[in-house]
Amino acid sequence: MQGHNLQDINELIDKTNRLKCSLEPLILELDPDIPDPIHNLILVGKIINDKPLNKAGVKNTVLKAWNPSSGLKISEIEDRLLFTFKTSQDVQHVLDRRPWSIMGAHLALQPWPPDKTIHEVSLQYSPFWVRIYGLPPNKMTKKNAKIIGSRIENLLEIEEDSQGRIGGRGFMRLKVDVNIESNFPKGLILKREGDTESWV
């Protein structure tokens, strides 16, 4: 019995040794009939949620929310979604209005670079609008908004009113790239005159 098992093991090892990948790197040519700009019309997305969502519901919600002018094709590759547009204006419209909530779940979206595979597109960061409360009026400046934005994540945009003022509603509003795979900071300690501190 032991000899029979040993023979089986040796056969398994032999078969495994024959399953070798070629050490010669694969070199492929670019398709001259597919221009790089076509990749500018494709967004890669992933729904961040504990439970899977109804696929038909997701598609209907996306089409209604985005309302693309020239149509939209939605396909799925494993855990990722591909959104193929027909115009760059529709793509920019969707990107500029991030973040998107689909049926109560967050939809992370990024453009698909022409030199990356679909799973190499990083969906770790997603833009969010963040409100900054607890600042006195003399601290609500563009320079301070940049300092706070850099402490949260990568600052993308600072909300200003029609007169170019910041914080006119009693808080500052910043658009930042947030690492959705890590804990988001609840606030920051503000050092003030007289060695007092306050919570922002």
Main sheet overview: 5 strands, antiparallel
Number of domains: 2
Strand order of the largest sheet: 2-3-1-5-4
**Order of helix and strand elements from N to C terminus:** HEHEEHEEEHEEEE
The rounded distance between the terminal residues' Cα atoms is: 73 Å
Q: How large is the share of residues in beta strands?
A: 25-35%
Helix content: 10-25%
CATH superfamily of the largest domain: RRM (RNA recognition motif) domain
Q: How many separate helices?
A: 4
Outline:
With 200 residues, this protein is of the alpha+beta class. It is built from four helices and ten strands. The model has no long low-confidence stretch (mean pLDDT 88).
Description:
Helices cover 24% and strands 28% of the residues. It is of the alpha+beta class. The chain folds into 2 domains: 88 residues, Alpha-Beta Plaits (2-Layer Sandwich), CATH 3.30.70.330; 74 residues, Alpha-Beta Plaits (2-Layer Sandwich), CATH 3.30.70. The strands form 3 sheets. Strands 2-3-1-5-4 form a 5-stranded antiparallel beta sheet. Strands 6-8-7 form a 3-stranded antiparallel beta sheet, with helices on one face. The longest helix is centred in the N-terminal third of the chain and has 17 residues. It is extended. 14% of the residues are buried. The model has no long low-confidence stretch (mean pLDDT 88).
Write the layout of secondary structure elements.
Elements (H helix, E strand, L loop, with lengths): L1 H17 L23 E7 L6 H12 L5 E6 L2 E6 L2 H9 L3 E3 L2 E7 L13 E8 L9 H11 L1 E5 L13 E8 L9 E3 L5 E3 L1
